[in-house]
Each structure stands twice: as structure tokens, then as C-alpha cells.
Write a structure and sequence with these properties.
The chain is α+β, with helices and mostly antiparallel strands. It folds into 3 domains: about 5-100, no CATH class; about 105-220, Band 7 domain (Tetrahydropterin Synthase, Chain A, 2-Layer Sandwich), CATH 3.30.479; about 235-275. It has helices spanning about 5-30, 35-60, 150-155, 160-175, 180-190, 190-205, 225-300, 300-310, and strands spanning about 60, 65-70, 85-90, 95-100, 105-110, 125, 135-145, 210-220.
Length: about 350
Amino acid sequence: MNIVDVIRAVAGFAWLAAIGLAVLALTRVGRNQSSKGIGSTAIVVLVIAAVLSIVGASAVYIESTDRGVVRSVRAGGVRPEALQPGLNWIVPIFEQVEAYSISNQNYTMSVAPGEGQRQGDDSIRARTKDGQEVILDASVIYKIDPNKVVQLHIAWQNRYEDGIVRPETRGAIRNAVSQYGVEEVVSTKREEMVQRITDELGESLSKNNLVLIDFVLRDIHFSEAYAQAVETKQIAEQQAQQAAFVVEQKKQEAEQARQEAQGKADAAVIAAQGAAEAQIIQAEAQAKANELIGQSLQQNPEILQYQYILKLAPGVQTIFIPSGNQFILPLPNTTTTPTPTVPTTTP
């Protein structure tokens, strides 16, 4: 309760008291009793009640969340400036005040009953660029421009919600949706579309003395026919993806088997090459050894005789041979006899 309400309440009690005193004074007069003091008191109370009533009718208290538009009998019909928060004064009978809230307001349009300002389905139906119908739920958060309350009152009074907010929002949504394909509306271009709606709606509300705080795209629905078509398409895509996965899996299995076979073949080739190279190395080593043995025997023929003797009797440590006698077994000839050269004559 503000100060103006208190004044008006006191004025009401004063009027009741004045009426009560007046009735009492008349009653005493009717009984031939003195009513001098009561009558004068009633007059004083009556004056106080009248003054308080005039003050109460002249004073207007505006809340901090409101602005007051003063309707007047003067030319123009309204004061050019709105009343600011606090105690204000008007001319009783000739002026009246209508308060407008400048707080944030919400207007919701939804397919679900009870969610929006209107009962029943109040969603927005729009056509995409490719001709598909989409159904959108949206909320608009806005407020009255505090500096343009009088202009709003002149143009729309209290009809701005149904006259501006609702139709402008629905029009901006339909305009934006028509610029995109259905797949873009649902996913890839949704944020861009919301920004387009916000810009267009903000400009439109500003021209009508309102301020857009935020636009919220709550949900997007499809018609039953299109929803069924989307579901069928998704099932087909999933089946195609599954088939592609199976094919890819078979390819991988075949590639794995091929690589395993190739690995075994490569291993066999490597093993064969290794064996051949080992034999070559062994033969080369044997040839080298033979060459070295031959060179050693040529330089030391006694080694061959010694080895020969060891082969005859491995356990024999010493052999005595009579001086000047031939050995019982002829030793192999390890020396080479030079071939005589036959002189040639020239006729």
C-alpha cells in the first residue's frame, strides 16, 4: 500500500465519521437535545474528509516498474510526457492515469495446450525453401520502451500484444524459414535462421515502441507425412550403412588373408635364398681352405708325410727306420719334377 492509498483510506474513514456525527446531531435535535458540539465536530470532520478526498484524487503513485500515461481533456488527449515512478499530481475529474508496465514480458506460441498465451495449438506453420511444412514453437521476450510509452498508448493502448508482438513474430518466422531448406532449418542453418528472425523482429518491434530482449526457438516439428518419410529415409540409410560395413569387413578379411599368404611366400623365398647363399659361402670357404692347404703343402712337404704316418697308426708315437734302408711303404711324392726342355733347331 502506497501513500496515495493511505490518503484515500483515511478520507473514506473521515467521510464515515462525518456522516455518523451528522446522523447523531440530527437525532439529538429530534429529541430536543443539544447538538452544538457534535454539529461543529461533524463539520470539521466533513471538511477534512473533503480535503483528503481531493488530495487522494489528485495524487497518483507510480511504481518503479511502471510508467503513467495521463489522459486529459486538453487538446491532444494526453500529456506529452509519461509520469515517472513516485508521487505525481493530476487534475481530478479532468485527468486520468493509465499505468503501463516496462518490465520484461513473455509471449509464447506453442503446440502444447496451456503453454502459451492462447489455449490450444498456437504454433507457427511455415514452408521451407524446398516446399516442406515445418511447425515451430517460439517465445518472445520483450518490453515497452520506457521513453515511448505515450506513443505506444496513442497507437495501440493495451492491444500491443495481439496487435504487434504476435503477428510480427509469426511473420518474421515465416519469412526466415522460407529462405532455407528443411535440412538446414533442422540442423546446419538453425542458428543462422534464429539470428535472422531476431534481427527482423527486433527492428519491427522497435518501430512500434517496443524493445526485443530475446527470441527463443523452442522446438521444430514436422507434419505426419514428412515425419514418416524422414523415418523411412533414416531406416534406409542405416541399412545402407550396415551393408557398406559388411562389405568393408569382407574386404578387410580378404586383404588380411592375402597379406598372410604373401607373408608366407615371402618367408619361403627368403629361406630359400638364405640356404643358397649359405651353400655358396660354404663352397667358397672350402675352396679357400683347399687353396691354403695346397700352398702350405708346397712350401712344407714334410707335413704330408707326417699326416700320412699318423693315418697309418694313430697310436704310434715314434718310428725307427734303419739308416740307409727304404721305408716299408713308399711315401707319396710331394715334389714335382721339372719337365726337360728340348732344344729346337732352325733349318
